[in-house]
Amino acid sequence: xxxxxxxxxxxxxxxxxxxxxxxxxxxxxxxxxxxxxxxxxxxxxxxxxxxxxxxxxxxxxxxxxxxxxxxxxxxxxxxxxxxxxxxxxxxxxxxxxxxxxxxxxxxxxxxxxxxxxxxxxxxxxxxxxxxxxxxxxxxxxxxxxxxxxxxxxxxxxxxxxxxxxxxxxxxxxx
Length: 174
Prior knowledge:
Blueprint: E1 6-10, H1 16-23, H2 40-51, E2 57-62, E3 70-78, E4 84-91, H3 100-115, E5 121-127, H4 131-139, E6 143-154, E7 157-167
Parallel strand pairs: 4-5
Antiparallel strand pairs: 1-2, 2-3, 3-4, 5-7, 6-7
Helix pairs in contact: 1-2
């Protein structure tokens, strides 16, 4: 998938059905801290109450300008320490292994430091067993810093997490 065909745009409530296709997939959400959505109404409430007011939550779309239906999402959430922000990304299973996540991550770091005032570091926590997400982050220029042992509970299991970072002075990768 050429990176030029992946775009990011703000979500809209009309995106709920496209989002339901991947947000309800237990394989897609296996490494997520949240469970698959089972109702359109619950996902619509999440879009309305969390996504739309969020400072940086974008739909990952294919097809150039204008985007089309979302095939994933990327968020960058400032922490209490305003110089840092936490990144999360999810992509529909049909688009795994095609460079979509990597392209979305590249577009994210190219925009987010200008969009979120004071943010100098974007970090991502990735389950050590999620090799595909680790590869996508590395291809987008993120640096693996450490493994945080027994860092968090995900779906009832204590998990080791790899921490990755991209700082505002890191070079953007084409």
